[in-house]
Amino acid sequence: MTTMQTHVVRRIGIAANAAELEAALMRLRSTEGRVPQALWLHSYAVCEPDGRFGLACVFQAADAATLQRHADRCGLPAHEVLPVAHTLVEQAFAPTRVYLVRRRHAWPRGTDLGRQGAVARRVADAVIGREVSWLHSHVVREADGRLGTVCLYQGIDPAALARHAARAGLPADEIVPVLGRVVVRDASRNAA
């Protein structure tokens, strides 16, 4: 039996409007079970900087190649396929003013990430706690072997998240609003 690993699949700017975004989600649903060893857990719909809509999809899969086959099958590009090294849950998902913050190639080792995470938590609590609240993060392995993150924060606006990142010494390569969350299945119930 193949070991399944959690991945984040980033689909950037795949829809111009809500109808196209719904059609993309329907294509994902129609592919359910058609690609062996690709299990869709949930997705975050985001508004890209150019006004288009995208998705950050969380899957359990045998490997990145399986998710590329899945992308080909459903006709939705996989701009990034990132293996999740660890998921950090700070708070349950909040339904309002949630942003996806992408930190690319930020840490060479997990110990660096742990130290930086502690600094980020202190900055958020002490300096801008009313503006930013960390919900959870997926630690991903970048193609170059370094670690990055796909984080979800509740915040008053993108500028507050950028200030938080700057004060904590963290990159914030991408800050996009999350429009909603599509839960296909609960990952904790599917853990094997």
UniProtKB/TrEMBL annotation:
InterPro entries the record matches: SCO4226-like
Source organism superkingdom: Bacteria
Name used for this protein in its record: DUF4242 domain-containing protein
Organism, scientific name: Piscinibacter gummiphilus
